[in-house]
Amino acid sequence: MATEGAQVLLSVEAEGYVQSLERFELPEIGSYRWSKQHEYIEKLNMQAVVSAAAQEDEFVKEYFITYEKIPTLIYELITTEVWKDKIFQAFVDMDFQPKITFPIYMVLYHEATLINLLETLLFHREACESAEDSILDLLDYCYRKLTSLVARKDEDDDVEHNDQVDVTSAAPSSPLDELEKQNAVLDFDINIKTVSVLRYITDHISSMPLSVMTRMLNTHDIPILLVELIESPPWSRRRKGKLQKYIDSKWQEIDHRDTFKLTKLEGQVWLALFQLLMSPDCQQKYDLSSYRKNTILKLRSYLTEVTLDQLPILAEMQRYLEHLSIMDPPPAKKDLVLEQVPEIRDSILKKYAGKWSKIAKKQSKTHFNPNKTDLKDQAKRWADTYNFDVLEGLLTDPPKCAVCGEPATKRCSRCQNEWYCRRECQVTHWPKHKTACNLLHDSLQKVKEGQTS
What we know:
mainly alpha, two-stranded antiparallel sheet, 60% helix
């Protein structure tokens, strides 16, 4: 929680940052101007979270609405997604060996910053309305991420965010190998955050273009996708017989007494389902085929007394499902609608089709191959943007141990980013923390070398 009066940005600074935001084309990602905008968005995100947590004036949100910049955030989000899919993969294929990896990591992290900022802004109806037609692009983005979550649950969880790696037997990794691991960790967290974004879209669906409801219900069949997430939640797992849940961007062990306690994330899924199944407008538009009906009826087994005690509003949905089980739903109302379709991702893919390797080669020689002068400038800007002491000043709660969650007094001396309550926890966490720690530490060391030479 933010301390009273604590701020990352003054209102006038936030206004200037929001007003200056622009859309960057794919080849410009990683450039100096792009990096400056990334820093602006990072600070705006921090301030938006601080204001929302402290229930203070959310001036960042107001400026995004006033200057109509939410569509710009969505465009940047999808452009970054395409960059990661195409250009970063091209870097891997060409075995690019950057002098310093932090600039590439910043692009990978940019998507996480954008979705986090949108999650904060779109809680408000007027922010969703301000997105205008680009809300369709955001809806499709959420659909891609949620289907990725469902697919991930069906795969062997062998990436770093799930299992610790035996570093004593692992082969030496290249810088891009380390970045790929970090990208997998970031992608999982990004996918999780889209659950909240989707929930806010469903909350405000009545004020959206009609195409949003049609696309959500009948094109992507979001209700069925959410049922799959309820049945097989990717944010829940068992390790050594212990239940763990993904809470606040970390896997946390759950006490057996809290096994059936809903997390905020699980609550978001249920609330989104409630809106899509119980809203009169949605009921009229959703074509409940036999398959859909049978799938949705599976929810009855999850609506236990414990769940209903935590979310009493679901009792209404329980009654609806019981009624649905003994009747045939009325046919969906089919109006003649000129449906809008999302355009951002398709236009980017079409514009740069067949040019991915060429763009990657050029960026590897320019944006991601900084000289010593550029490194010095970047180091100063990174230190300002990622100032851990400033960020800690915004928190009233003491730092918590990354392993056990107890109050922590010890910090990783190499990266200054993780906290621990005792040395045993730090040693236990090292196999998981090593990749991120080395990435940040090595990057800062190279910057210092550039400054002294």
